[in-house]
Structure formats: structure tokens, C-alpha cells
Specification:
Length: 588
Amino acid sequence: MNRLTRIAYLGFIAGDTKPFTIVHQVSFAILLGASAALLSVLRPDSAVGHEWLVSGSVLLIIATLGAVYSEKFSRSWVPNLAIPLLDFLALGLCRLGTYPDGAGLSILAFTPVVWLVTSFRTRGAVIALVAVLVTLTPVSLFGGDAPVDAARIVLALILPVAVVLVSGLTIGLETRLSSVNARLTAALERQQSLTSDLQRTSALLRGTGASVDVGVVVFDENGDTAFKNPAFASHLDTTVKRLAGARFTSNGSGDADTTIGSPTATGTVIDDSAIADGDMFGADGHTRIDPRESPVARARRGERFADELIWVGPQDGDQLALSISSVSWQGHPSIAPHMIVTTQDVTATQQLIRARERILASVSHELRTPLTSIMGYTELALDELENDSRAAASAISSYLAVVQRNSDQLLAMVEDILSAQQTPSNSFELNITEFELAPLIDDVVEQLRSTAADQEVELAVESSGSPTISADSKRITQVLTNLVVNGIKYSGPGHRVTVRTRADALGIGFDVVDDGAGIPAREVDQLFTAFFRGDAARASSQRGVGLGLSLVKGIVDAHGGTITVSSTEGAGSTFSVRIPSRDKGTRP
């Protein structure tokens, strides 16, 4: 569409705007001026009224200039009334100057007629009819030498009647256009309102999706991603780290390509083609899941389910537990059903459940053994009481010693379990005092010498001084006792456990060093996890529920301190505890 066509289009649809005024007037001036000029040239001078043509041309120029500068008028109705009337006068004068050959110029009268009608409706039609009767009809009746008869009157009235008909048609068309315009405007306003509501709803949806820790992804009928939230991308990123060799892509903003479950997808939480070696397991963590039967693949096939638990990652590594649900949703009959898949990271919860199951199994076993021993030796002691002899008394004493040892073991287990209830929130009640560390270490080592001797383990203390520490002496005693007992239990006969006092940039504390079998590197990071027992511990005859080191870390953390471990298989382990130095009177 060229520039002139666009201007013309704008002019005819824009009402009383400047393009409308200019287009109408320029087109009218060109047609009238060109027609009058041709008639004046082609006809003899005696048949042309030059004075009328000049007067009409002047009026035409004035009207055209008025159209060009119509925006200068303070009231828009002034040019819309004055310019068409000047056009009627110019047309009448040009028609008079070229009459009778210029009678055909009358057809140009419909241009100012339409202008007046579109500007003023019925009033414009009346003004146009009067203008035609004043400027054009007299020339038709009285121009030339022909007598005024009935035929001439009829011919003269054809133009006014046509003006009335055209005015009526224009008003009707204008009315219909106004009605259509009103409906379109209302529809546009409704559309704008709906768009605004949609934008608000979309913003609310995305805001809600961004604020929850549940991953949400929506698939359309083609399996393409229609929506995903940041939590879902986070689950994806975590999953990627646990899937060796999986093929994923990311756009660099943390929002990965997540056309999930599709055989041609480049990235997914659990993509049929992205899982290497089938590192995806069922709720038990051991049963491998065929990628074609993964929860997401089933959801893509239209299956609905709730809280499907899977484990992602190698069995001997760090696994991610995901709870996945799938529902079908159709917001409107005209919209194809969508599948909504939610993913929730339940790793911590599942680990707690597993830990609970382990502790129940372990506690039931560990408690049964000493209880059985206590019951058996108590029964033997009761039997010996029937014999009043020195040998019986000696046997009873031996039996009661066994009962006491097993009772102490039971008490230690119960205390560990009760203390474990405080560990998750570090809610240990601390009684902070200042005391010398060396005497506390000596007391603990002295109390455990008989235990070490029974295990044929040598206990030693290496102290370069007696630093003063601000801490809860009872809790620090518990920490040191646990570490030394562990060293004794797992070093084995013929080995040595050494306690060394330490004061460095990290604080004041001690190292517990043994030269036993050491700890496998893969188990070091899990040593302080509640109920964790390494392979060697589970295989040994040493009883325990895996709470000792967890309690140790909880107590140290409650003091604001640190505990670290370094170990080499076959060479032993070192546990280092540091409690930060603090000003007198301050508390952790």
C-alpha cells in the first residue's frame, strides 16, 4: 500500500481528522479544476464565462487552503462546514461558466454532500440539500436560452432528489458503521480487560510457582512443556548431578531445557533417553525401573498417579528421592487435556524414615543381647543363692559383674537415644564454665583404662600444657569419652589410642588419634550422620546404634566449635575437636 493510498484510506475512515479533510478537498479540487480547465480549452471563448471560472477557481483555492490548515481552527466543525459550502459555490460558478457543456460537473456535488452528512448527519443533509438548491438548481432551471418547462424542471430536480437519497444512504451507512464501531470498541475493551486479567493471572501463577518448593511442569497434548517453575528446574539440576552420563542442556540461567520424558528431549528430570545404566530405582531403593516405565514416561502416556517414590542416582552414591504425581487437567472443553506433573524432593524425609527403620532394627537387636545376658546371669545367681558356700558367693559375684556390665551398656544406649532427641535442633542445655582441659582429659583416660586393657589397647595422653577452656565440662567429657571409646572398640588388640591437648587458631580442644584400621574415604562424610555405622562396624562384634558420633557433633556444634576427621585405611584415624576461645562471660 503506497503512501497516497494509505492517506486516502485514513482520510475516508478518520472522520473529521486532518487526513480526511485534505483527501476530500484535494480530490474534489483536482477533479473540478481539471474538468473546468478542459472545458474552457475545448470550447470556444464565446461559450465560456471566464469571469465565473476565475471566481470559482479562487473559491476552490481558498477552500483547499482551508483544508490544509484546518487544524488551525479552534473548533473542528468550522472547516467541516465552511469548506464544503465553498466547494458548492465553486462548483456552481464553474458549472455556470461552462454551461451547458459543464452540466456534467453536477456529479461532483456528491463529494461535499458526503462531507457534510458524515460531519453533521441529518443537519448536514439539510445543509447539503439547501446548498444544491441554491448553487446548482438555478443554473439547471434558468441557464442557457431554453425555456423553463416541465421537462426542464424535472431534470433540474433530479440532482436534489439524488442528494436526498445519497444523504439517506450515507446516514444509514454511518449509523451502521457507528454501531459496528461501538461493538468493536466494546469487544476491544473486553479483550483488553481479558488480556489484563490473563497477565495478572499469569503473573500470579508464576509468582505462586516460584514461591513453592514443589516442582511443577505442564505438558500439552504433544508432550511439549507448557509451563515449569523454578523448583522443578532445581530438581532437574540436582538430578543431573546424580545421573552419570545423562544428556542434559541448560540455557545458562539455571532454567534447563525441560521437555520431559520425550524420547527426543534434550533434558528432563527423568528422561527415557537421559538415564545412563538405569540409575533409577523404586521406593525400596534397589529395584531398577525401566526408563519406559518411569513415572514421567507413564504420565506422558496419560496415566494418572499420586506420590510415586523413586530414587535417582547410583546405589553406592548420593541418591535423590523424588515423590512424583501426575494428573490430567482440561481448563475448557475447547482446550486439549494437559498433564500436570509435580516433583517433590523428599530425600531428607526418606533418609529419616530409613534411619528410623534402622534404629528400630538395631535397637531391638542391641537391647535383646544384653537383656538376654542379664536375664540368664540373674537366673544363675538366683540358683546359686540356694547353695550356702564360699564357691557360690564367688560365682554370684561373677554373675553380678556380668549383669552390671550389660546394665551399663543398656544405660549407655538409652542415654545415647535420649540425647539424640536433642541433636537435630542443637538444643543441648549448656552450663558454661571455665576449667583446665588437661585434668579433664586425664580423668576420662583413667576411667577408660580398664576398658582399654580388656581390649588389649594402649591408652596414652600427650599434653604440652593445660589450656583453659570455656565450655560445659559434662558435655566435653561426653564428647571425649565417646571418641576414646570408639578408638578402643575399632582399633583392635595391639593398637594405641592417644589423646593430645591442642590450642590453635581454631580454638582450644584435643585430638584423639588411633593407629587402627582407619576409615574408608567413602564413609568419612557420613560418620556424623545419626544411626550410620560403617561396613567394618556392622561386621564387627561391637555393639552400637550409630548415635555416638552424631551426639559428639551435636554437642560440639552447640558450643560453636568444630570437629574434623582425617583417616587413612590401614594407618588409623584422627578426630580433632576445637572449641572457640571466647571472652569471659560470653556464651555460645
